[in-house]
What does this fold into?
Amino acid sequence: MTASDPEVDLDLVVSNRRMLTADIVALELTSETGAALPFWAPGAHVEMKLGNGLARQYSLCGDPADRHCWTVAVLREPNSRGGSDYIHDKLDTGATVACRGPRNNFPLEPAGAYKFVAGGIGITPMLPMIAAAEASEVPWTLLYGGRSLDSMAFRDELARYGDKVRMHPQDTGGLLDLAAELAVPEPDVAVYCCGPEPLLAAIEGHCETYWPTGALHVERFRADLPDLSGARAIEVELAQSGITVIVPADKSILDALLEAGIDVDASCEEGTCGTCEVVVLEGTPEHHDVVLTESERAGGDCMMVCVSRAQGSCLKLDL
Ligand code: FES
It folds into this structure.
């Protein structure tokens, strides 16, 4: 599979805006100068730096071959922390938005066949994956769940794939039956899932029990932020700087490092973008991000310092 180009900072213009459903807006983003945009591969996302100080990541859901337009689709979250409201309310056609990308934490790995499972707005990364599978004639199916048919975006685009796509609105069909869908592990079949946390937790639980390690690929855009109420202070030794920083129980490692004058890149500060990744030389991280894979987590040699902490009381970082 082709890799995305390296990520870059870009000011992009909303060249087209349209509502896909009552709560989902699609934005087409183009260069201010009309220049070609970096190539991206299915699964990639763009980070949008919003005028209200928030940064949010959205899957690219257009055609990677279109080098002049990046498309995102954004659900107005019922409990928006300000990101999706800003996009719906402030980013009209003609608005400029600072972006960084493409970044791909959810690449489409080669497989003999794919089972795509999408819940709600989790359909967005699946669209280019499906197009890629279709183009390379790899068998695939999509199970697409949503609250109701009206709430499910891209129904017209998906209709052309016929019975490879099964729409499953919850108001008439109930929850997705993952146990039936994934009852029998199949060799060389990769399962890709994106959607709300209960769906991801359910599919992880099911695949962990029945499917081979590595068969399931999920993407989250919301981290499991640590509850710091019972947290301990951590001693963080910095190998390059030769100093030790004490991270209080109520503070993130990132904040403590920045306060100590250590230069660490960061963006989302909620464990979703991967910008603050740091190499761990000693100690065992306690991961709370949604960027690292299970095997990267288990490897224990890197961590996102904006949200992750330590299993013990000490860490040594390559900073
Ligand atoms: S700043 Fe985004 S993962 Fe840490």
